[in-house]
Amino acid sequence: MFRSLTVVRRFSISRSSLNTPKSSCVAGTVLNLKVKKAGDEPVALEDSDYPDWLWDSLDKGKKDKTLKKNDFMKWRRKQLNKVNTAKIKEKNFLSEL
């Protein structure tokens, strides 16, 4: 029973929907950002009206890949910092026991 459900679920997602960015707001929605005291509020645009880099700005995997490609030493320092931070947190946790 479970096997048949996973097969149906796998084929129910189209490849084009995976690559297409989706914003959290429908086009034309007032965003209520209160940027200016006077004037109209900003309105959400169609997804195609926004630049491509905007959809990648929150994707840590893509940012990490581009950083590794452009500036390897900075990427390596970030990786070492993550490892050191994890070690410190582990030692602090073990010392509290």
Automatic annotation (TrEMBL):
GO cellular component: mitochondrial large ribosomal subunit
Location in or out of the cell: Mitochondrion
Keyword Mitochondrion among record annotations: yes
Subcellular location, principal: mitochondrion
UniProt-listed InterPro entries: Ribosomal_mL54
Keywords, alphabetical: Mitochondrion, Ribonucleoprotein, Ribosomal protein, Transit peptide
UniProt KW Transit peptide keyword: yes
GO molecular function, one term: structural constituent of ribosome
PANTHER family found in the cross-reference section: 39S RIBOSOMAL PROTEIN L54, MITOCHONDRIAL (PTHR28595), LARGE RIBOSOMAL SUBUNIT PROTEIN ML54 (PTHR28595:SF1)
Protein family according to the UniProt entry: Belongs to the mitochondrion-specific ribosomal protein mL54 family.
Protein name: Large ribosomal subunit protein mL54
UniProt organism field: Candida tenuis (strain ATCC 10573 / BCRC 21748 / CBS 615 / JCM 9827 / NBRC 10315 / NRRL Y-1498 / VKM Y-70) (Yeast)
